[in-house]
């Protein structure tokens, strides 16, 4: 017997996913960044592709391979990620799983800053654009918009605040306290917040979290 064809609930749909960290240069050899392996975002892109979607994955620098069947756009800074996200529109659904740097160094030195004994240079920052909130309040907003929330305290309260302000339909909240092992790990314990309330998912592999999220999106797109 031939195996039954996998269902393709997202056939004909375009899904946009962000993943990985952004990096923000200080000078030609130094940068600041966020902790992010890209595992969860890449798993979401892969699950969307398996569900039949055309997928654009906008990713910061990660050490994992590109998912199969996905168009990958590589970026470094938050500003580049914002541009790439808007260039990829329109999309039916977007999942913003990237760990975007909230700030960037105010002045980027064009030459390497040389060390001088007894002196450490000060760093000052300016705010980066909030890509999720920008998309959430834009006329080109995808029908379904999913954000994440990385929290170390008051997970649900902080995530609810993000749901209320960023224009997203869903916020996937995870506790990234060092004890939890989410960063770089293969499992994730999430709470999914929406206007319908809070859904606490069991601890699952990042692949299973991705599959459940893609099922939810497919259901909502109808
Ligand atoms: N995000 C974004 N652009 C930023 C910062 C965050 O698009 N400049 C997105 C992330 O991809 C994620 C969501 O916003 O989907 C929440 O990110 P998070 O860092 O948890 O929240 P912030 O709103 O940045 O607030 P804070 O870091 O203070 O908790
Ligand atoms: Ca942040």
UniProtKB/TrEMBL annotation:
GO terms for biological process, alphabetical: coenzyme A biosynthetic process; pantothenate catabolic process
Domain DNA/pantothenate metabolism flavoprotein C-terminal: 10-219
Record's catalysed reaction(s): (R)-4'-phosphopantothenate + L-cysteine + CTP = N-[(R)-4-phosphopantothenoyl]-L-cysteine + CMP + diphosphate + H(+); N-[(R)-4-phosphopantothenoyl]-L-cysteine + H(+) = (R)-4'-phosphopantetheine + CO2
EC number: 4.1.1.36, 6.3.2.5
Chain residue ranges for the region called Phosphopantothenate--cysteine ligase: 15-222
Annotated binding of CTP, by residue: 102, 112, 129-132, 148, 162, 166
GO cellular component term of the entry, any: phosphopantothenoylcysteine decarboxylase complex
Cofactor: FMN; Mg(2+)
Keywords of the record: Decarboxylase, Flavoprotein, FMN, Ligase, Lyase, Magnesium, Metal-binding, Multifunctional enzyme
Molecular function terms from GO: FMN binding; metal ion binding; phosphopantothenate--cysteine ligase activity; phosphopantothenoylcysteine decarboxylase activity
Cofactor descriptive note: Binds 1 FMN per subunit.
Superkingdom of source: Bacteria
Protein name, entry field: Coenzyme A biosynthesis bifunctional protein CoaBC
Species assigned in the record: Pleomorphomonas diazotrophica
Name of the encoding gene: coaBC
Shown chain mapped onto the complete sequence: 180 to 401 of 401
